[in-house]
Sequence to fold (292 residues):
Amino acid sequence: MDSSLAHWLQLREASDAQSRSTALTRDIAAVVAPFDTVNVLDLATGAGSNIRYLAERLQGRQRWLTVDRDADLLEALLERMHRWGHGRGYDVNVGPDTCTIRGPRLDCHIETLQLNLRVLHDRVLFAGRHLVTASALLDLVSESWLRDIAGHCRAENAAALFSLTYNGRSTSEPREPEDDLVLELFNRHQTTDKGLGGLAAGPDAAAVAEQCFTEAGFVVRRAASDWTISPAERDMQRLLIDGWAHAAREIAPRRSRTITAWHGRRIQHLDAGHSHVVVGHDDLAAWLPRST
Fold:
């Protein structure tokens, strides 16, 4: 497991939960409510933040298949779900690659699967699923990947909920002259190949996904889910600023000196307790119209 990735996922979970569209979550909960048991596929699940956000909001009997290429992150998922469940007073049982969490209004069984999601040719993953979910994933995948997932959801009559897709917009206060330059370079970096089907859709991902699901016959809803990060969230801001600078240098190595100077000033604002950051995201929900 990349320890820096695990740390980043832990840092961002609270901001993710605060930023997500509650309206779209309610829409999806209503769509899957008629099922006695909701079968969910969670893609690129990481350490399980999507389950921790959705499980109590979906309620009832749930069967989750959680997929990630990182076996250590999946192990961390089981550990974190164990702590999460006990902290809420649920009965929790963790076994090899599985976790079951039960209480008066929740019966949630989780199975983990290590798998590279570069391509989505395995129809078995989607078989019998009522809901397909992912968080902070779509901007990393290709347009063909998005078309494939829309097709799989259509074939299974599955709804979809994709949260926190980066949309290319961000602002930082206090402003610096190079902010727009670094943002433009970072957004270009987001469209490079991330190992998920080709060149990534990047900031256009939510719009591309909306088009793919609409063409497949789905009702599609989008909503803003922007991060608003305060000066108190110093560790998260620092990793963001570091990541922006690193990506910008990779795209424009000849501008490295300018980017390094920008990075230094942004960190100074952060250390002084003055730095405010907003990062734009979109949530997307999709479901097939009910037969009349």
